[in-house]
Amino acid sequence: MEATALIAQLADTARLAARTLVAASGADRAEALHRIAEEIAAAEVEILAANAIDMERAVKDGMAESMQDRLLLTSARIHGIVDGAKQVSALPNPLGITLRESTLANGLHLQQVTVPFGVVGMVYEARPNVTVDAAVILLMSGNAALLRGSSSAESSNKVLVEVMRRALAKTTISPDVLQYVPSHDRSTVQALLHARGKVDLVIPRGSAALIRTVVDDSTVPTIETGAGVCHVYVDDEADLAKALPILINSKTHRPSVCNAAETLLVHEQVAEKFLPMALRELSDAGVRLHVDQKVEMIAVASNIPVSSATEENWSTEYNALEMNVAIVPNLLAASDHIAKYGTKHTESIVTENDTHAAQFIALSDCAAVMINASTRFTDGEQMGFGAEIGISNQKLHARGPMGLEAMTTTTWIVRGNGQIRK
Amino acid sequence: MEATALIAQLADTARLAARTLVAASGADRAEALHRIAEEIAAAEVEILAANAIDMERAVKDGMAESMQDRLLLTSARIHGIVDGAKQVSALPNPLGITLRESTLANGLHLQQVTVPFGVVGMVYEARPNVTVDAAVILLMSGNAALLRGSSSAESSNKVLVEVMRRALAKTTISPDVLQYVPSHDRSTVQALLHARGKVDLVIPRGSAALIRTVVDDSTVPTIETGAGVCHVYVDDEADLAKALPILINSKTHRPSVCNAAETLLVHEQVAEKFLPMALRELSDAGVRLHVDQKVEMIAVASNIPVSSATEENWSTEYNALEMNVAIVPNLLAASDHIAKYGTKHTESIVTENDTHAAQFIALSDCAAVMINASTRFTDGEQMGFGAEIGISNQKLHARGPMGLEAMTTTTWIVRGNGQIRK
Fold it and tell me: Residue A377: which CATH number?
């Protein structure tokens, strides 16, 4: 079948099936997630066999080892997926919550309540765990899901969706709320991105290039996730004993993710004291340093290997042990640098001065501002959401880590007794 | 200057100026709106003179009279604009409101607070009052505005922006937060829609065609406003004495706007009782009726003029005294009709049965559901928002009438004392 017709059919089927999700109570949906967790645990052998087919093809095709690692499923990773599904099932029901309520002078009673989006498309790359992680968050928030993973994970994803559908068949929720989207060519992604009216929302997860393509091409509303050129700014009134571990943690704790820091900005008043130890510790941790001229002088004096930062460096999300370092004359200059090169994800200031912190917050146009804390805390689980489907890097709708609530929209319910406009 | 460069320059200037808006308190912004209201009132002669130029060109170009009426400014209309600005200035400050707050086990303090979008582009058609209505809502919510009206209102809009900037020059807020975007050709719209990274949000207001173009072409996030194919469903358990005024009000109170009803659906159990009087009253009010076969039989028996509805009729937003009428076998069939032809704006059910109302709510995937009330109540002022920049017809971000709150996004502020990820 041609891709546009196929996506339309999958979306229509999913939308009709979603009525069973809306009719189900929060407890019913939690129970369905439990079934899914159990079914996945029971299907471990089947899932590992399917993953072995993907892995064999990946090796044959010469896939990079880091990518192979993302594709690989193991018994431990399947347990992780199962635990994740159980955790989401234990979260509070995000639907039917009254956000605003009032009674007008004419007697009309207004309620703004949370409702699902409807049919949500996920477009993602190699990691097959996203198939389940995304599906359970979407089901728990009452949404049907069209799951379009990478062709390299085709047999893993196909089996994971089959197993989840098998679990749903034992509940009041129709298995058709989960739809596997064939991934052997790009046409299904294109069709999904243009299924306006059929699909309510598309969420891309993966590389910056994938996200760019999805956000730019789509006529379906999208939520841009991911790209993070995050900064740590060490203020002139910073406690340097806090600044050092915050810096090292922000850069090295998990360099491959979006909330890792890429650039260190240091106030000139504390640069000579802070930078020799900071550069030394970064360098010892294996971090390649791209620095401005003033930093280079300090590095050379301390015999720390650095290279001159290019214009491109300042706006690069390395996803690796590399970092840019610059000295700035003041907080405003730090904010200007961030405004020019940042991606509005997470910015951290280390300062003991509350006024400086407030200025930094006001000038930082981003999803999260850290004051004396690691950039790594911009994370749904860390922030107590219990689960995360991604981190929104846009201003429309949810901003920052997105849990169950972010996968709902609202409707206004207006109850009257025959009121008409005067 | 080439359009892309021009828009980039206007947006950069506006973004820098927006720092004065962020630095201003809610009271400062309210005061600025008061100045704007006063300045507009004082500049009445100047504004009417500019409008006369637009009107003269409109007449010469043979603009339709209904369009001429939208373009026209009068002393009374200017007073309306002034009052509107004063009303917005009296609304509560929507910025800096803490929506969620918690302290994590590791001592981190989390706050989700409302912040402005930054630079918002308005693309709108003939009516020059939108220039001020939109500007004051955006300023009150801390946003800078790029105002791109219709070329037919060029001199009116230019003077209105000049007058508002003159008012801002007397405050702590930079006049550069308001930017007039030249409208003599389409290139500035295209440039605005593609100013990703320069403009944070674009809101179109005007015809369905304008909105479609903006939403489809834009790489800047947009909020789709407007199109409303709204339904009134008269249930088998309706109080017909309530149903009739609700129907007439929904259709005829102001047929040209998006929350007017276009289609009446009647449960077959009450059709023979309700339709003769309903069709008669609609017809007497000058409403042209497009009906299905069963309705046609009833109409013919009552000697009421109707025509057979085409497939196109069911999905048409008339913005005029025309209405479709169908008989449905049950509530589910009514919901299926709405799902097929509706635009997810406002749906109204007339029923005395709470279970039926609940089913209708669950099946209506729309911005607002009315129970025993006119569709015309989906309106920011009616719903107590005090002002409205438009009605969102999409699920992402705000849904339904958008007041000041809808013009804000959020940021997470995370305060720590040196916390790092374990």
Answer: 3.40.309.10
